Amino acid sequence: MRVPCAVPWAVIATISAVLASACGTSSVALTDDEATIGTTPSTSSSSTTLSTTTTSTTSSTSLSTTTTSTPSSTTSTSSTSSTTTVAPVAPEGDLLRDEEGVPLNGQTDGILITNTGWIAPIIASTADGWQVWTPCGRTADLTEGRAVESSDFVIDPGHGGSSEPGAVGPGGLREADLNLQVALKIRDALVGSGYSVIMTRQTDVRVPIVTRGEIAQALDPIAFISVHFNAGTDEGSADPGTEMWHQIESSESKRLAGLMYEEVVATLDSHDIDWVSLSDAGAMSRPNRSGGDYYGVLRRPGPVTSVLAEFGYITNRAEEDLYSDPAIQQQLAAATLRAVDRLVETSDPGSGFTTDPIFRGYGPSGAGRTDDCVDPKLQ
Ligand SMILES: [Zn+2]
User: Is residue 296 helix, strand or coil?
Assistant: First the structure.
């Protein structure tokens, strides 16, 4: 149980985001990676319980919230009659936005864990609370919740919610659910080793990519790790098709991707199954048309170190079966912890770097539009 040297101990927290239904069918632009593959999900996340455990040595109040998922896929007809106390927010809010109306990242400092379990990046303190960035990228004034200033790691289970299942395996396993199951085990492994962790979601809900990126920036962690499983090839391979995507300009992102590649492939290779892979599987980067990072989960968190982990192919039946096993999920979490420990404690460069990746096109930008997003109840 090694301890990261340069990490403050003030907040050792396991944070849960119980998220009510998220942003409905908003038009978050999706990357190739985010592509949804067909079928009706046959599994669903069962974790509707939030339990936030704070093992801080300092003053943090112990937040323990039990919440059942709050249905909030209501349309926002403005007669907010119920007990909702979220301040009505203008569609434009006070955030700086780009020409497409997407909030620019980097406008917050710290996050508020709302008493309904959401993670809301903090824009400013107010006389009686906080002005926050809602999951849909609006502003709201809240009076309740718990502020967290920083976190060692942010773990991001990709996709989520009925509108964004991610890839779906031939047996019906939804990527969003598998991502969450593995991400929760990663969180537990990291917290068990003394790191503080914030999750971008902890239930089956949808969080726009722009918000995931802002949560990273608001907490300034050692790294942001986005957990995914892949789709897109059925080409047989003797080795796993693991892909670890890193930020083009970040040497630490590249190192973490290489370390995760080493550890994850070593773990998976111990299982003798029929893998699928693209020929360039490895640790690599992908530019967009203007030379920046193509994937929103790498571009949006910047300058925070970020890695997009595609552990393997959920669309390969043999792998779908493998990853469905909680023991295998635990192995992936342990591999991630070893990579994180090596990132923090060594200068190991990692390996498995692909120098000339297959050109995958430029496609949609993955910017994370929030136009039609319906915010959940925040307090
Ligand atoms: Zn994905």
Answer: helix
How far does the centroid of ligand 1 lie from the alpha carbon of residue 168, in Å?
10
Please report the DSSP string for 102-166 in residue order: PBPS----SEEE-TTS-EEEEEEEETTEEEEE-TTS-EEEES-SEEE---SEEEEE---STT---
Determine, yes or no, domain membership for 315: yes
**Ligand 1 mean position, distance from CA 177 (Å):** 11
pLDDT tens digits along 6-19: 333 333 333 333 33
pLDDT tens for each residue of 104-151: 999 999 999 999 989 999 999 999 999 999 988 899 999 999 999 999
> 255 lies in which domain range?
150-345
User: Ligand 1 centroid to 87 CA: how many Å?
Assistant: 33
Distance 341 CA to ligand 1 centre (A): 25
Backbone φ and ψ of 311, nearest 5°: -65, -40
Tell me, what's the pLDDT at 365? 52
List of residues 6+ apart from 41 with CB closer than 8 A:
162, 165, 168, 172, 174, 177
Ligand 1: distance of its center to the CA of 33 in Å?
Answer: 5
**Chain segment 47-102, per-residue pLDDT in tens:** 333 333 333 333 333 333 333 333 333 333 333 334 444 444 444 558 898 888 88
Q: Is 323 inside any structural domain?
A: yes
Q: What is the CATH number of the domain that holds 316?
A: 3.40.630.40
Does residue 102 belong to any structural domain of this protein?
no
Q: How many domains is the chain built from?
A: 1
pTM given for the model: 0.77
Note the pLDDT of residue 93: 57
Burial of 147 (0-12, 13-18, 19+ CB in 10 A): middle
Question: Do the beta carbons of residue 240 and residue 265 sit within 8 Å?
Answer: yes
